[in-house]
């Protein structure tokens, strides 16, 4: 009965993961199709974060229940490993799309759209498949704790075992390097970096990209946790266990900027209003809300959904790199080599007004 209950839990958990990933995929699609209200935009981002976190936990749970001594169990275990790699790849591509290439709109740069939406929808589809496979699997031996028939045991060759051991060693080194980067990012967020560390420009983008680093570090940490469990001997596990704890702490610290951003946005809004309200007859927001341009402004200064899927898409004409300051014409010598540009987002009718 206990074995049956364990199998039932795996299948129920699988259906939940499949359903939640499917729901997030639909919500993401609606985000791109319909006008985005402030509440909905933030809910999209929160659902994405919860979905990634829960699916990663599910991957650990499923991997622990699999019989890797069977070939099918080993293959499904590799899918669990690969999900963490998929999360790392998604965070990397989203980072490049959002903070390096998003001075274009997706309608202008098709490659940017493929990069941004392909990675985010891809990881959702992967999570749905990872939940569906054990949910509909009829091979109970792969998932159960019952004895394995001798003819189904997968005996790996010594050469294969050596390759696996070498691969684990390489993965451990990569995970350690990621934790070192995580230490630098967290130190930069809370204390700042001085001296030659500024070369990495961490002080500029650490807080903005901490969410991506957080999921990346958490994925590497879960991979390290899986490797730690496969090592025999408690003493051998201690160093890696310490690294796992460190990874969880660092990933948690990377999520702090996201939690503090709403309050920072509120404080900035109040400070801005205090400075500019006298110029706009007491209420600058009311002036914009009552104008013909109110629809061109975002309803919220920050959206969690925009972190992953970009800002809401509007039809517009983009004029890039318009020069508005040429230091060579300045009266100050310090401006001699300075040139400043801006990007203009104009109405679809190419209005000059």
Q: Walk across the major sheet and give the strand order.
A: 1-2
Mean pLDDT, as a whole number? 77
Major β-sheet profile: 2 strands, antiparallel
**Which residue ranges are poorly predicted, with pLDDT under 50 across at least 5 consecutive positions?**
none
Return the domain count. 3
Order of helices and strands: HHHHHHHHHHHEE
Strand content: 5-15%
Give the termini separation: 75 Å
**Overall SS class:** mainly alpha
The gyration radius over C-alpha positions equals: 25 Å
Number of strands: 2
Note the total helix count.
11
The percent of residues in helical segments reads: 55-70%
Shape type: globular
Summarize the topology.
Layout: H1 2-33, H2 38-65, H3 71-99, H4 110-136, H5 140-143, H6 158-190, H7 202-229, H8 234-254, H9 256-276, H10 284-289, H11 304-309, E1 317-326, E2 339-346
Antiparallel strand pairs: 1-2
Helix pairs in contact: 1-2, 1-4, 2-3, 2-4, 2-7, 3-4, 3-7, 6-7, 6-8, 7-8
Write a structural description:
The protein is mainly α and 353 residues long. The chain folds into 3 domains: 1-147; 159-254, no CATH class; 315-353, no CATH class. Helix content is 67%, strand content 5%. The protein has helices at 2-33, 38-65, 71-99, 110-136, 140-143, 158-190, 202-229, 234-254, 256-276, 284-289, 304-309, and strands at residues 317-326, 339-346. Helix 2 runs antiparallel to helix 3. The chain is globular. The mean pLDDT is 77.
């Amino acid at each position: 009965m206990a074995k049956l209950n364990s199998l039932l839990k795996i299948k129920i958990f699988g259906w939940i993961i499949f359903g939640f990933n499917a729901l997030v995929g639909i919500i993401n699609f609606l985000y791109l199709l319909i006008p985005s209200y402030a509440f909905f935009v933030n809910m999209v981002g929160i659902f994405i974060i919860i979905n990634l976190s829960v699916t990663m936990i599910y991957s650990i749970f499923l991997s622990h229940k699999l019989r890797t001594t069977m070939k099918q169990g080993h293959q499904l275990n590799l899918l669990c490993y690969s999900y963490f790699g998929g999360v790392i790849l998604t965070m990397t591509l989203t980072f490049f799309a959002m903070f390096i290439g998003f001075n274009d709109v997706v309608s202008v740069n098709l490659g940017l759209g493929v990069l941004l939406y392909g990675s985010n929808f891809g990881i959702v589809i992967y999570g749905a498949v990872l939940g569906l496979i054990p949910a509909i699997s009829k091979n109970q031996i792969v998932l159960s704790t019952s004895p394995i028939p001798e003819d189904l045991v997968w005996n790996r060759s010594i050469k294969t075992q050596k390759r696996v051991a070498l691969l684990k060693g390489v993965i451990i080194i990569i995970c350690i390097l990621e934790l070192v980067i995580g230490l630098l990012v967290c130190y930069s967020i809370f204390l700042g970096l001085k001296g030659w560390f500024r070369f990495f420009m961490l002080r500029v983008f650490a807080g903005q990209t901490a969410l991506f680093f957080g999921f990346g570090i958490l994925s590497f940490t879960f991979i390290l946790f899986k490797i730690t469990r496969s090592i025999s001997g408690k003493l051998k596990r201690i160093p890696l266990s310490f690294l796992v704890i460190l990874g969880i702490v660092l990933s948690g610290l990377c999520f702090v900027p996201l939690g503090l951003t709403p309050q920072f946005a509120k404080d900035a809004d109040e400070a801005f209003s205090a400075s500019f309200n006298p110029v706009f007859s007491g209420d600058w927001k009311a002036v914009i809300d009552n104008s013909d341009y109110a629809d061109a402004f975002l309803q919220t200064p920050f959206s969690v959904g925009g972190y992953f899927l970009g800002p809401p898409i509007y039809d517009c004409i983009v004029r890039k790199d318009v020069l508005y300051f040429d230091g060579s014409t300045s009266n100050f010598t310090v401006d001699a080599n300075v040139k400043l540009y801006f990007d203009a987002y104009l109405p679809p009718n190419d209005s000059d007004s």
